[in-house]
């Protein structure tokens, strides 16, 4: 008789969306894959975009693309990992074979986008999740909102013993995306940056930029609680954009020149425009936030050209390079996972509440859900 596991299944996308906690078949790892018992899973705005139908995705689906856990079973051909290893995975699952993976740009992996992000399956064209009647349930990345998850071993990294396994789940998207954005911005010590949006990714940009790169940080949001949080993470100055114009204030704080780099971590046309206007001549505007699939933003062409402003799209990071670096920084205390994760929800039943509170703006940083009490 097939084993079952509990999972949070998105049965209907839109407003309102429908999440159902139900028993589905426990998956088995195939060649080159591992099965993990999920310890922690993050709850991200990208999950919310899918649930709201703003990003098209096949239904029914198990969302959740930040995950940590303990390996329970290894598939054929897996080397270097064994049952009991504490691991974390990333939302980008690189195939290792396409043009972009071969040139070191795992963040642009063609197979990941074409198979997983468009079809909710792995690279053999099949999902690993099935309902009790055998019908397919699609996976957003690895489908982390479940008691077990099957993940290609290429996307699995061992977690140092001094890090809390539940909270470390969020490095697979929020922290890696922020880390990749800081790297793509080519930050230098002593520069000034501005961060628009102090959510899960924006807060991590503040923390990483300050602690790793030694820059001056200006944080922008409409929520004073999030701005207080940004100060705790290392922001030198905060701007509530409900009360003052962020572009004018950034210019005042930088002697009229503008910031060396601006990070937009919301995905709104308005804040993207503000980020571009906030940087100095020759500065960099790094766009991180995702939006509706049909959303577009604009900029003043002449100002962009004459001032030599760079617009940089930054999607996630390079898992094979960035995750070991992030784990090292966390393990050595350069970055603090307890600062990054302020809200931990207990149990798989709390995922719908965590997603709703994220939608309502009630959480600071990136929320994590402790799915297994054995962590």
Average pLDDT taken over every residue: 96
Amino- and carboxy-terminal Cα gap: 28 Å
Oligomeric grouping of the chains: single chain
Q: Which shape, going by the Cα principal axes?
A: globular
| Helical fraction | 25-40%
Q: What is the CATH homologous superfamily assignment of the largest domain?
A: Medium-chain alcohol dehydrogenases, catalytic domain
N-to-C order of helices and strands: EEEHEEEHHEEEEHEHEHEHEHEHEHHEHE
Say what the CATH topology of the largest domain is.
Quinone Oxidoreductase, Chain A, domain 1
Provide the β-strand percentage band: 25-35%
Please report the total strand number as a whole number: 18
Instruction: Give the low-pLDDT segments.
Output: none
Please compute the radius of gyration using only Cα atoms. Answer: 20 Å
Structural class assignment: alpha/beta
Number of helical segments with 4 or more residues: 12
Largest sheet: 7 strands, mixed
Question: How many separate domains?
Answer: 2
Q: Supply the CATH class of the largest domain.
A: Alpha Beta
CATH architecture of the largest domain: Alpha-Beta Complex
Describe this protein's structure.
This protein has 375 residues and is of the alpha/beta class. The protein has 2 domains: 4-172 and 317-370, Alpha-Beta Complex (Quinone Oxidoreductase, Chain A, domain 1), CATH 3.90.180.10; 176-313, NAD(P)-binding Rossmann-like Domain (Rossmann fold, 3-Layer(aba) Sandwich). The protein contains 12 helices and 18 strands. It has helices at 45-51, 99-102, 110-119, 174-184, 200-211, 224-233, 246-253, 269-277, 301-307, 319-331, 337-340, 351-359, and strands at 4-12, 18-25, 33-42, 61-62, 67-74, 86-89, 129-130, 136-139, 148-152, 156-158, 192-196, 216-221, 237-240, 259-264, 279-287, 310-313, 344-346, 368-370. The strands form 4 sheets. Strands 3, 5, 6, 9, 10, 17 and 18 form a 7-stranded mixed beta sheet that branches. It has a 6-stranded parallel beta sheet with strand order 13-12-11-14-15-16, sandwiched between helices. A 3-stranded mixed beta sheet has the order 4-8-7, with no helix packed on it. Helix 12 links the parallel strand 17 (344-346) and strand 18. The longest helix has 13 residues, at 319-331. The protein starts with a strand and ends in a 5-residue tail after the last strand.
